[in-house]
Amino acid sequence: MLVDQIGDVTVTNDGATILKQLEVEHPAAKVLVELSNLQDEEVGDGTTSVVVIASELLKRANELVKQNIHATSIISGFLRAKKEACQFIAKNLALKVDQLGDDAVLKAAKTTMSSKLIGTEPEFFARMAVDSMLRVKTINSSGVAKYPVKAVNILKVTGGSQTDSKLIDGYALQQVRASLTMPKRVENAKIAMIDMDLRKHCLKFGVQMLITDPEEIEKMRAKEIAITKRKIDMLLDAGANVVITTRGIDEMSCKYLAERGAIGIRRVEKKMLRRIAKLTGGKLLMSFGDEDGEDSVDPSRLGEAKVVEEERVGDYNVMFIKGCVSTAAQTILLRGANMYMLEEIERSIHDSLCIVKRVLESKRVVPGGGAVEAALSVYLDSVAEAMGSREQLAIAEFASALLVIPKTLAINGAHDATDLVAKLRGYHNAAQQDKERAHWKHIGLDLTNGKVRDNVKAGVLEPAMSKIKQIKFATEAAVTILRIDDSIKMFQPQQQQG
User: Fold this and answer.
1) Which residue range(s) make up the domain with 290?
2) In a domain? residue 130
3) Are 406 and 424 in contact (CB under 8 A)?
């Protein structure tokens, strides 16, 4: 539980979120905070693991420095180990998703949820994550399939249990109709997305009007209203029956829209409007000016959807845009007891969506549960023994440092870490020495029963990209800190007292 200066509470076990919230002063610690953010942006999951590995590497490097081994030897050893490790994962441990069957993606999504708050309902949320990502598939100009995470909108509504959450085929907004007189539902919607005010047009600051006749005031008011009415008429005459704006809509404008049977939605974030524009095949209108210098609205710039309707969800009204034109727009509607819980569920779902995206795009997975780290540890030990230079010490320490992941997993599962990790290393050593036992390379931890098992058969899978990036980023962060000889802190010069 993190409580900031103004009393806002965050309850989470997401590594990147915890590190973002901490006010870190130490410059070396800031490198580790940036490291977790990088892993979050590049992969979306594994933020805790990458910091744990980097910290262990630094701890081991520090021990070597105390033994009078120069930092340059340690750095070159770590970099060699990183290269060997990434090649070993790609060559020996990575499995193609096509060989494992269609449910490999679902298994990867369930694996990432095992350490999260929603780990009690992995099947339910994993299925939701996989279905939503498969629906938002797009093909780019190079003919490559892409799965944009941002196309899945996550909406949080308090009330109900977490299993009341559902996946909706469409885009949802928490902003609702600007007036209750507007229709609740519009079919065959033509959506105008504008970044301008639909409030009475007022004079700019600094402009004065000197009026001698009271009737002129009334004319001025009428003109101000007429300017806004003209804007609305232009939109509606172009065929729009739903108007979404980033700014406001006043009562007079609501009346005009309601009279013409149109829905007006105000104060929607610009990034959401851009997303809706992309999904409905429309364009965001910044102004009404055309190439001839005249004011007009091109009907082709309006978005299209089968239905735009307002529905009741719990204690709130939600606006749904369904049946979009270009890509399938998806919304995951989360329910939960309170906002703290909903925010943590959102973070967990986001991590899961990112992992599904990585598996679908890279099409390669590795066994989870410490299998990769144990295999690398055994392999790098053999690499170190075959070397005749000082670097072998650094590579041997790198190999030992990787075991921190299975050790931590065993401790979190309330098991004897030393015993389990020794068994795990034994299996992987046999797998690498004896060709007949090569299938043991998939052996990882079973934390439910405190044993070791084949994690590919058990369905504990992670994207290969996640593991490779973890090792690369952790090594590079450790090397960055190792290169530092001295830290010099510049203090503010003291103001001389007069």
Assistant:
1) 166-200+229-336
2) no
3) yes
